TrEMBL record:
The chain crosses the membrane at residues 21-39, 69-88, 109-132, 286-304, 316-337, 343-362. It is found in: Cell membrane. InterPro entries: LptG/LptF_permease (IPR005495). Keywords: Cell membrane, Membrane, Transmembrane, Transmembrane helix. Pfam families: LptF_LptG (PF03739). It comes from Fermentimonas caenicola. GO terms for biological process: lipopolysaccharide transport. Its main location: membrane. It comes from the Bacteria. It is a multi-pass membrane protein. GO terms for cellular component: ATP-binding cassette (ABC) transporter complex. This is YjgP/YjgQ family permease.
């Protein structure tokens, strides 16, 4: 079998398209994010001033982390618009026709597009999985302090989960500010039979898994016999911390992918039922890598044909498809959190649907 070495070699045409792709991608980011920052400043300036936010805090704690977060979040949209913009321009200038007329197939033409998409996808994955989450901690803390303090998680009610083999704890409510839980109980089971039950008015977290239980009662069961012990205070070790069960809507954004994977595993073992947003975040970071390739194929296939409507028509189609993609992401995530849809399916269903669209449009592309 003869190998076409020229196909795998990056040639002048490839470098030409790669430079246009990446250059337009950066231009789209700079343009749209600049507009987003201006609108965000206009919306939040009153809150910044009324809550005495400093200029340094606004610039370095908030916007320096705002820009990379939203750039990464909407990178599929930027990829799509960049491809449509510069490819439509090439088509209007008859560059695509000239390339295809010289015996270069559309499949071969997509090679520099795929290389560019790969570069963007890898940057998106690395930044989204390892670099942006720690920066999000600073941005979200700033938002909760100076923009909307109501978003800050202060506690929760009716908390129940497993802390060890046969051990289940329950908090009637927990106050995060004081690290104190109220109407606490801890049940120990042995082969589905209740061995002992501890109840207490309060339990307070100290540090390093150390908890102080106050005004407690311990009931130990041995057949028909029961032993009751009471006391005012006792220290114990529980391998849990408040953040294990007091979860804010933005917590998953502050975890790197390895931290997310570890957290999901530990919460599953404890029987916690509030991990869907974390699972969606974890799978979405991987799905986003492939979305760059799918949307690049769609954008290039739509824009390679010279049409009467010109660039404006292609950009209009691109915006419509971009909004449809984001809508699918939002709806599927909502079904996963509120309904019974698998978080894995919720993260991947936009890619699955748009893969079909990409295949159909690719087959219709000019050759």
């Amino acid at each position: 079998m003869r190998i076409d070495r020229d196909y795998y070699r990056i040639q002048k045409l490839d470098w030409y398209i790669i430079k246009k792709f990446l250059g337009t991608f950066v231009f789209m980011i700079a343009l749209i994010i600049s507009i987003a920052v201006v609108f965000d400043i206009n919306e939040k300036i009153d809150k910044f001033m009324s809550n005495n936010a400093t200029i340094n805090g606004i610039i370095f704690d908030y916007y320096l982390n705002f820009i990379p977060y939203y750039t990464n979040l909407f990178s599929p949209l930027f990829v799509f618009l960049a491809v449509i913009y510069f490819t439509s321009k090439m088509a209007n200038n008859s560059e695509i026709i000239a390339i295809l007329s010289n015996g270069i197939s559309f499949r071969r033409l997509l090679k520099p597009y795929m290389i560019s998409a790969f570069v963007i996808a890898m940057f998106t994955f690395v930044f989204g999985s390892f670099i942006i989450p720690p920066a999000n901690s600073t941005r979200i803390e700033f938002e909760q302090t100076y923009v909307d303090p109501r978003k800050k998680k202060t506690g929760d009610r009716d908390i129940q989960f497993k802390v060890g083999p046969g051990t289940i704890v329950y908090f009637d409510n927990f106050d995060l500010a004081s690290n104190t839980g109220y109407n606490f109980s801890m049940d120990h089971f042995n082969d589905l039979e209740l061995d002992s039950r501890l109840t207490a008015q309060t339990i307070r977290y100290d540090s390093a898994y150390k908890w102080t239980i106050r005004n407690y009662q311990i009931r130990e069961f041995d057949g028909i016999h029961e032993k009751i012990t009471t006391g005012t205070s006792i220290d114990t070790t529980l391998y849990i911390v408040p953040n294990d069960f007091i979860i804010a809507s933005s917590d998953q954004q502050m975890m790197t992918s390895p931290q997310l994977r570890s957290y999901i595993k530990s919460q599953k073992e404890r029987g916690m039922g509030n991990i869907q947003p974390f699972q969606i975040e974890y799978h979405s970071r991987i799905a986003m890598v492939f979305s760059a390739f799918i949307l690049t194929i769609i954008g290039a296939s739509i824009s390679a044909r010279k049409v009467k409507g010109g660039m404006g028509l292609n950009i209009g189609i691109g915006l419509a498809l971009s909004m449809a993609y984001i809508l699918f992401m939002t709806v599927s995530s909502t079904f996963a959190v509120k309904g019974n849809m698998s978080p894995f399916v919720a993260a991947w269903i936009p890619n699955i649907i748009f893969s079909g669209i990409a295949f159909f449009i690719y087959k219709k592309a000019p050759n």
